[in-house]
Design brief:
This protein is an alpha+beta fold. It is built from eight helices and nine strands. Strands 1-3-2-9-5-7-6-4 form an eight-stranded antiparallel β-barrel, surrounded by five helices.
Length: about 260
C-alpha cells in the first residue's frame, strides 16, 4: 500500500536545488521551503551557435560573481517531451534559482550597470529568451545526492486544481506524500512544486510538479512502481485534488553553482 500511495508522484518540474547555494544570512529571507524560480524559454537566433551563446553565458557568470549577483543556474534540454514542446520552437530551458530578494538584486544590477546592460544586449542578439517567474516549494530533497549530481533528469507535470479544491487542501496532501518519500524515495532525489506568478498568463496549469532523478534508470524505478499498482493512487489524486497533463522528461545540466 505504501508504494501505491507514493507512486502518485508521477509528476514534477525541477530545478536543481542546492541548499548550499545560498549564504546563511539569506535563509532569513525565506519562509519555510519557498524560493524564487526563474524559467527562461530560449530559442537561438538563426545565425547563432550554441558555442557563441555559451560564451556569453560564461561572461554572465563572471559578471555575476564580480557583482555579488550569483544564482544557481542550470540548462534543460528535451528528452521525452510532449509534442507541444516542438510546436513552441523552444531549444532549451534555463533555470535560475535563488531567494526572491537575491533575484531582484541581480536584476537591478543586470539592468542598472553599464556592463550588465552590454551583456543584456548581447543576450538579446543571440537568442529569444522569454522570462517567467514562479514560487518553488520544496517538498522532498536528498541534499547530498543533489549536491553531488550536476547531470540529471527532471520530470515536469503541469496540473490544475479541481473544482472545490483549495491550495490548503493541496498542500496538506503533498505534505503527507512527502513524508512517505522519506521512507522510500522510489528513485527520486528531489520533489518540488512550482506556482507561476509573473509573465505566466499562458502557463499550462495552476502549478507544476517537478521530480528530479540522478539518471534514467532511477526514473524507471518510479515508473515500475507506478505500473505495479501505483497508478491507482495517481488516479485518485487526479480525481480528488488536481488534473494533470502527464510528465515530460528533460536532461538537466548544472552550469553554475555559487558554492562550487
Amino acid at each position: 500500500m505504501k508504494k501505491i500511495i507514493l507512486t502518485f508522484l508521477t509528476f514534477v518540474l525541477t530545478f536543481s536545488i542546492s541548499e548550499n547555494s545560498f549564504a546563511d544570512d539569506q535563509y532569513s529571507e525565506m519562509e519555510g521551503n519557498v524560493f524564487n524560480i526563474q524559467v527562461q524559454q530560449c530559442t537561438l537566433n538563426s545565425d547563432t551557435s550554441i558555442k557563441q551563446y555559451d560564451s556569453m553565458i560564461n561572461d554572465y557568470f563572471k559578471w555575476a560573481k564580480k557583482n555579488d549577483a550569483e544564482v544557481f543556474f542550470s540548462r534543460q534540454t528535451p528528452l521525452y517531451v510532449h509534442n507541444s514542446w516542438y510546436r513552441s520552437g523552444i531549444d532549451f530551458l534555463e533555470i535560475l534559482f535563488s531567494t526572491h530578494a537575491e533575484s531582484g538584486k541581480a536584476w537591478d544590477k543586470w539592468l542598472g550597470t553599464k556592463e550588465g546592460q552590454k551583456l543584456n544586449a548581447r543576450w538579446q542578439e543571440l537568442a529569444d529568451c522569454r522570462v517567467k517567474m514562479g514560487a518553488s516549494f520544496i517538498n522532498f530533497i536528498d541534499q547530498e545526492a543533489m549536491n553531488n549530481d550536476n547531470d540529471r533528469i527532471v520530470a515536469w507535470n503541469w496540473c490544475s486544481l479541481n473544482e472545490g479544491v483549495s491550495y490548503e487542501d493541496l498542500l496538506a496532501e503533498h505534505e503527507k506524500r512527502a513524508e512517505l518519500l522519506k521512507e522510500d524515495s522510489l528513485g527520486m532525489i528531489a520533489w518540488a512544486n512550482v506556482y507561476p506568478n509573473i509573465g505566466t498568463d499562458e502557463a499550462p496549469g495552476d502549478f507544476a510538479h517537478l521530480a528530479v532523478y540522478p539518471n534514467i534508470e532511477s526514473a524507471q524505478i518510479y515508473q515500475q512502481s507506478l505500473s505495479s499498482g501505483g497508478w491507482q493512487s495517481y488516479r485518485d489524486y487526479q480525481r480528488d485534488f488536481a488534473t494533470c497533463k502527464g510528465e515530460s522528461y528533460m536532461i538537466e545540466k548544472v552550469l553554475n553553482d555559487p558554492n562550487n
